User: What shape does this take?
Amino acid sequence: MPIKPQRFVIDEAVLDLLGNEFKFDHAKGLAEWLKNSRDAYLRNGVPDPQQFVFIRLVEVGGERLKRIECIDFVGMTKAHIDDSFKRFFDPQAARRGA
Assistant: This one.
């Protein structure tokens, strides 16, 4: 089955979000990712011993952090991806699926 390009959905609140001063804190972002993974496992009734979250740090030349990845194994359906994953700047994102 060929991949069909899908249009992104950008929430109208993007201007409010972009208008705020950008203060990214990696520690807070990483904590949020871990919390989101834990919440997804809880929503799906996965027992504690079966919950795995991997944090991957990718460096450039062994000196600078290039990328941080958070990988869990809860999974997303095609409907989740169509309805939520490609949706940017949604202030209600954390409530979806709760």
Q: What stands out?
A: The mean pLDDT is 77. The two ends are 31 Å apart (CA to CA). The helical segments are 14-19, 26-43, 78-85. The beta strands are 9-10, 53-60, 64-72, 87-88.
